[in-house]
Amino acid sequence: PYSDQNKKLSIPTIISHVVKYIPELQKSVEKLRRRKQEIISRASRNGDTTNLLGDSLVYPAISVTGLDKNEVMVQISIISKATMAPLSEILKVLEKEGLQLINASTFTTQDDKTFYTLHLQAKDYVTIMGECLCELLTKTMKEQRKLR
Predict the structure, then answer these.
(1) Measured by CB atoms within 10 angstroms of the end CB, which terminus of the chain is less buried, N or C?
(2) Whole domain around residue 23: which residue ranges?
(3) pTM surpassing 0.85?
(4) Buried b (16+ CB within 10 A) or exposed e, 22-54
(5) What contacts 145, CB < 8 A, 6 or more positions away?
(6) pLDDT, tens digit, for every residue of 83-126?
(7) Same domain flag for 129 and 87
(8) How would you list the strands of the sheet with 61-68, edge to edge?
(9) Do 86 and 28 reside in the same domain of the chain?
């Protein structure tokens, strides 16, 4: 943000500029966060999550973490009732992939957000592919939505 890029500035001058610039950046970031929250809030109130933010808001966020060579943790965050899939359907898909449930927990908030945490173990030694599992579960959620 300097007018003359070729001019050498002293270290105290640079620090002074940085100290002034950081609060400006912080204000910009905070303004963008508020704007994002307003958009998400408006979208969830209207029930129209696809037009504003695309699939990222409608379909669940799924993460797969390998715990060791044959154990995995799957976390699914669902923020729309439209994409809610029964836990039994999710488990069927995972069992078809050779995974067995060790432990599960679910949590639903007052505004109907649902969180699943699944601890799974491979029945036989198999390479657990996190990305493939995420895609498979997302596909299952989309299919469940079409059935409604």
Answers:
(1) N
(2) 11-53
(3) no
(4) eeeeeeeeeeeeeeeeeeeeebbeeeebeeeee
(5) 82, 83
(6) 677 888 889 888 888 889 999 999 988 888 889 999 999 876 55
(7) yes
(8) 61-68, 71-78, 114-122, 99-108
(9) no
